[in-house]
Design a protein that fits this description.
The complex is a heterodimer of chains A (537) and B (556). Chain A is α/β, with parallel strands linked by helices. Chain A has 18 helices and 13 strands. In chain A, a hairpin with a 7-residue loop joins strand 9 and strand 10. Chain A is globular, with a radius of gyration of 28 Å. The N and C termini of chain A lie far apart (66 Å). Chain B is of the alpha/beta class and 556 residues long. Chain B is 49% helix and 10% strand. In chain B, helix 2 runs antiparallel to helix 3 and helix 8 packs across helix 17. The longest helix of chain B has 28 residues. The chains are: A alpha/beta (537), B alpha/beta (556). The interface between A and B is large, with 157 and 157 residues.
Chain lengths: 537, 556
């Protein structure tokens, strides 16, 4: 910075856009003349260099570690930040230039290789283990009991009864058989049939209660909530951007979000002292840390009711979150897939849709994820919903739905099922009652073993504190206990570390895939392991 | 923004501009010696003006993304904060906490532009904007036809859809089967005891492996063998099922190539590849032109040329994506061609993805032999061979969304299995298909009848075109006539072709796919999908085409 360009022949006019465009035009033309003249060789090589440099800078901009805080409208002093930043830009550009690989044997893409690696997260290890030796009361009484998969089998009888009675009609459409086969076997819109969207909107308002209404035209249907989240992520964030996500969170997000999109997750730690409630302070802290690391934060991903804890975000928290998102100009994805699986009696569930309809917020940044895997316990059907208020995102998501569209027979089936309001009402009611009953049984059972659960109101699981049972108060201790539960106790639970919980000793136990009469057995097995741990100490 | 004219202060605004700060100074260091080197007047001038201009562009870019502090508008604050007072329904304490957050957020909010829209990722904007409207005639035609579809009685003046690859000729067979067996297939054996039924519903609605049920893989393997007349047998454990062939291709592209790498694809090719291969994976497609003189057969020479050209452009080629039978032309790759493609792939050390979607829909002469890539597996290193398949065409169930990846590369299979979580096949559909495809008698009958009907319709349609003087490329399989209408186009160019396409769509009310959508390098070729037509519709379509033809001739 010792020398500055001394003569400034054309000080740019205050209107930046117009001025720059004007300058650009005037510059480019004389440049040719000069390039052909004396300075041609040097300029001809230096100008592209400069351009390349700025291109690098532009590319690496997200990584530049020191950015002025958002609140300050004063520019940072150049002297403070220039030297080290300069070095950084130079190094990165060099590595970019050398970044070409060498020719090798037939190879896959590096991203393909990364995905192909087996996942060693205890979440998936446990699931696989159970798949190899699943418990069955009669056939395999020594098998492993699955408490690691959030699945609800409590109301299968209802679904089954309905299917028996209505399957043929729903697929074939009674008399209009011709029409129906045409609407099933042939190509359908990738983003879901309008009829199903209407039925889904109705189902969602029933589940979320209080007359929140959903507009079918703001909906995109996909083959499960998993692709729904991936596609939303893809639409909101570029490679290398980040999302804030309160911990503990659903272990699958690590795959859903990071696998193909290249988006990073910044954990926002919640603690047992607050019953794992999200605070805006923690959010803000995580946001600033991410910025310091040079990551561009594009959104917050919340689960409500939260998974794995099962607590519900209050109206106030939701409002604060919206404020925060608005202030930072980022998106909010609200995963409300457990909205209908509530068992709490005191707390009410408030959908993000309700808040956003009721008050003046910039709706374009709010997106809701829903699915039928939990609330209608049809995970095998693979039906997920993106509900967004942002037209651009909807347009892109509709196009991307070609990669994960729902099978037409399934859509036909669901249209009839969801339109059968009597059945749906009965189902929602019964399902809640049965979940509550299982919750009381299960949490009561754990309580008798001296294991406390976090306070929760929804979901298919409880979040149990077994830190008294772990030998070491660390992730290692937790995983030892998890291993013992799995291999000795023959019970597969999800350890907190898989959910990125920062406090060791917490476990997610999903109780809705259990038969009521198996609960004592589960308690017995957990009790046995607990005894072992206590005597071992 | 206003810059001070004094030289001393010039540096300040200059470096403010690049929000990231430092990079700008580095740039200065690079550019300043430029002044010393370039002694002429132009040097001094440019040495100062060029960086300035560059900073301006950078600044513009930053500004657009970071919102101008000065543009902030206080209007947003009351709007955003006032209603919240009402919401603080949970007592004073909360309202106070609330208040605290509100003030702090207001401070931070003020420098923000209220108009600052939530960010949509660059890649999504590209997808949201890309063809669908007027840009690609393929999608424009599909949309037009779906808005005003032909119906013999209901809408006799509607547009007849010949642009969508779909087979309606044998839908009655599928329907018949479904009426008989659907309930049983999904809910389980009717009339059995309750326990069995419970098990069955359990298998339908609970979590299933994302890459497809083993039973379905077995059934699909045998169906594929059936379609290939048992020349190949498939190992279900090398198979991954996806929600349609579209994600199958995407997953393969994703796993085989990194963003910025390329695939060689012989043209004309299926227009959807431009989305499937490129959109999310960032992989590029290098067209390998095939010509009508060779009946659009792929030659290794052009493959090699395309490969070298791509290399010159600095692109890394990761594979060849072939279709066999080819789509849209519909010819089969000869054994010799398949072998030489494999040799080429081995030579260049790249992958081969063979899209054999139409194998069961071949309707041509029996003496031509279909050679699946899976057949040659013993003779080459199989790690590089991948087969994509689907049930959309051969059993005419595109609505069911079932695709297949068949590969001999364990890493690819493992990656694909992990990725199917994003495009799994629905449970009820899987059970339906297990039952349907395991019904050997039905499948045999279906494949036979389907081929017959395809042949009959193809003969009727292509024959009709021939009478009009439109020749079709020699074709052995698939749902298409690849018709040469180059004599009718007013100018021998893409423009002329699109004019004719437009005329066919608007005057003739027939939606077809112009060759340019398939990246055909010779203008005047059109893809007609005849498999959606009923026997009675064929004369109607031919009449409409004739109408357009005559108007073309009278003009010229």
């Amino acid at each position: 910075m010792t020398e500055s360009p001394s003569s400034e022949p054309e000080p740019p006019s205050p209107k930046p856009r117009a001025a720059a465009a004007g300058n650009g035009m005037r510059l480019v033309v004389p440049l040719q003349g000069v390039v052909q003249g004396r300075g041609g060789l040097i300029l001809g090589s230096l100008i592209p260099c400069a351009l390349f440099y700025f291109f690098q800078l532009y590319l690496k901009r997200h990584r530049s570690p020191k950015r002025p805080p958002a609140s300050s409208s004063n520019p940072p002093s150049p002297s403070a930040s220039s030297p080290n930043l300069g070095d950084l830009a130079r190094t990165s550009s060099r590595s970019n230039l050398l970044g070409r690989g060498s020719i090798g044997p037939v190879r896959l893409s590096s991203r393909g290789m990364a995905i192909a690696k087996p996942n060693d997260s205890p979440y998936y290890v446990g699931l696989e283990k159970v798949a190899g030796d699943p418990f069955h009361r009669v056939d395999n009484p020594d098998g492993i009991i699955q408490l690691g998969l959030s699945e609800n089998t409590l109301c299968f009888d209802l679904i089954e009864r309905w299917m028996k009675e209505n399957l043929m009609d729903s697929l074939m459409g009674g008399d209009g058989a011709e029409l129906s086969i045409n609407g099933m076997a042939t190509y359908q819109p990738f983003d879901g049939l309008m009829e199903l969207k209407v039925a889904m909107a109705d189902f969602m308002s029933r589940v979320m209660g209080k007359g929140v209404s959903f507009d079918p035209s703001q909906m995109v249907l996909m083959a499960g909530a998993t692709p729904a989240i991936e596609i939303l992520t893809f639409c909101m964030a570029d490679h290398g951007n980040a999302f804030l996500i309160p911990t503990p969170y659903y272990p699958g997000f690590d795959r859903d979000i990071k696998f193909r999109t290249g988006v990073e997750l910044i954990p926002v730690h919640c603690r047992s002292a607050d019953n794992f409630m999200l605070t805006v302070t923690a959010l803000d802290q995580a946001y600033n840390q991410a910025r310091k690391r040079g990551l561009k934060v594009r959104g917050i991903l919340i689960s409500n009711p939260s998974n794995p804890v099962g607590n519900i975000l209050s109206r106030e928290t939701l409002n604060e979150l919206l404020d925060f998102a608005q202030e930072k100009n980022i998106h909010i994805i609200s995963d409300e897939i457990f909205a209908g699986s509530l068992y709490g009696t005191t707390e009410e569930f408030v959908s993000m849709a309700e808040i956003i309809e009721a008050e003046e917020f910039d709706k374009g940044r709010v997106h809701i994820i829903y699915g039928l895997s939990k609330d209608l316990s049809l995970p095998g059907f693979r039906v997920g919903v993106v509900y967004s208020y942002n037209e651009n995102i909807l347009a892109a998501a509709k196009r991307l739905a070609r990669f994960s569209s729902i099978s037409a027979p399934t859509q036909r089936l669901l249209i009839s099922m969801l339109s059968d309001t009597k059945f749906i009402e009965e189902y929602i009611e019964t399902n809640r009652r049965r979940i509550r009953r299982m919750y009381e049984l299960f949490v009561g059972g754990l309580d008798q073993l001296g294991i406390q659960c976090a306070k929760s109101s929804g979901g298919l699981y409880c979040w149990a504190n077994m830190s008294v049972l772990i030998a070491l108060y660390s992730e290692k201790g937790e995983l030892e206990l998890w291993d013992k539960l799995l291999n000795v106790g023959k019970v597969n639970v999800t350890p907190g570390s898989a959910c990125h919980c920062i406090e060791p000793g917490w476990f997610r136990c999903c109780f809705t895939a259990l038969a009521e009469e198996d609960v004592p057995l589960v308690m017995e097995r957990i009790g046995k392991v607990a005894e072992m741990c206590k005597s071992g100490q | 923004m206003t810059r001070s004219p004094e030289p001393d202060e010039n540096s300040k605004p200059t470096s403010n501009i690049g929000g990231g700060g430092g990079g700008v100074t580095t740039a200065m260091r690079v550019i300043i010696p430029l002044q010393g080197v370039v002694q002429g007047r132009g040097g001094v001038f440019l040495g100062s003006v060029i960086p300035c201009a560059l900073f301006y562009f950078l600044q513009l870019y930053l500004r657009r993304n970071r919102d101008d502090p000065r543009e902030s508008d206080d209007r947003s604050n009351p709007q955003n904060s006032e209603p919240r007072d009402d919401s603080g329904s949970s007592g004073q304490q909360l309202a106070e906490i609330h208040g605290f957050h509100r003030t702090s957020s207001r401070n931070l909010l003020s420098p923000r532009s209220p108009a600052g829209r939530a960010y949509v990722s660059g890649r999504a904007s590209v997808i949201a904007k890309s063809p669908g409207g007027s840009e690609s005639p393929y999608y424009a035609g599909l949309r037009k036809a779906s808005e005003d579809p032909y119906d013999e009685t209901g809408n006799p003046n509607g547009i007849i859809q010949l642009g969508l690859a779909q087979n309606k000729l044998t839908m009655d067979l599928v329907k018949e089967w479904l009426v008989k067996h659907a309930t049983e297939a999904i809910v389980g054996g009717g009339g059995d005891d309750g326990d069995d039924e419970h098990l069955s519903i359990n298998g339908v609605s609970t979590y299933q492996p994302c890459d497809g049920l083993m039973d379905l893989k077995v059934a699909v393997s045998s169906f594929m063998s059936q379609c290939m007349e048992h020349s190949v047998s498939f190992d279900p454990s090398n198979m991954v099922l996806t929600a349609g062939e579209t994600p199958a291709i995407e997953i393969l592209a994703f796993s085989l190539a990194d963003a910025g790498n390329a695939f060689l694809v012989p043209t004309p090719y299926y227009p959807g590849f431009d989305r499937d291969v490129k959109w999310r994976t960032g992989v590029e497609i290098i067209p390998v032109p095939c010509r009508s003189a060779d009946n659009f057969a792929l030659s290794i020479t052009s493959l090699d040329r395309a490969f070298n050209q791509a290399k010159k452009r600095g692109l890394r080629v990761r594979g060849v994506l072939i279709s066999n039978p080819t789509s849209p032309v519909g010819n089969l790759l000869t054994r010799e061609t398949v072998y030489s493609i494999l040799d080429f792939a081995r030579d260049k050390n790249i992958h081969v993805v063979s899209n054999e979607l139409f194998v069961g829909s071949s309707h041509g002469r029996a003496d031509e032999e279909f050679v699946s890539i899976a057949e040659l597996v013993d003779e080459v290193d199989k790690e590089r061979l991948h087969l994509a398949y689907g049930l959309s065409k051969d059993i005419s169930l595109p609505g069911f969304r079932v695709g297949v990846i068949y590969s001999f590369n364990d890493t690819v299979l493992s990656a694909a299995r992990h990725l199917t979580r994003f495009s799994p096949v629905s449970g009820p559909t899987q059970h339906l298909l297990i039952a349907m495809l395991s019904d050997v008698q039905f499948v045999q009958e279906f494949v036979k009848v389907n081929r017959e009907r395809l042949r009959r319709t193809f003969d009727a349609f292509a024959g009709g075109l021939k009478k009009m003087g439109i020749d079709c490329a020699e074709s052995n399989g698939g749902f298409f006539c690849w018709a040469n209408m180059s004599e009718w186009i007013s100018s021998y160019s893409e423009k002329g072709e699109l004019e004719l396409w437009d005329k066919l769509l608007k005057t003739g009310k027939v939606s077809v796919t112009p060759g340019s959508c398939c990246h055909c390098i010779e203008p005047g070729w059109f893809r007609f999908c005849f498999a959606t037509l009923t026997e009675r519709e064929i004369p109607v379509v031919l009449e409409r085409i004739r109408g357009v033809a005559e108007s073309c001739k009278s003009q010229s």
